[in-house]
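Tutorial handout. Part one gives the primary structure; part two gives the three-dimensional structure as tokens.
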Amino acid sequence: MEYRFKPKWVCSQEIVINVENGVIQEVKFIGGCPGNTVGVASLLKGMKVEDAISRLKGIDCGGKGTSCPDQLSKALEEIIKK
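Part two.
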């Protein structure tokens, strides 16, 4: 199932996530630093949602208190709640 998330306080404008049976199939960041976001998306493919959350949650970018990976963890937490 595809989910869309609007991150806050980061360069990415949207995160599109495809999850099937609790496993991440695909992640696409719209905007942001392509090298970093494509790399993160590639590493997460095939990972359980819960494992991704535990690895990404709390990562900071430039003292913002959040980052694109942290915002992705928040999106994944919303998916779990549904």
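Part three, for discussion. Strands lie at 2-5, 12-20, 23-31. The chain has one domain: 2-81.
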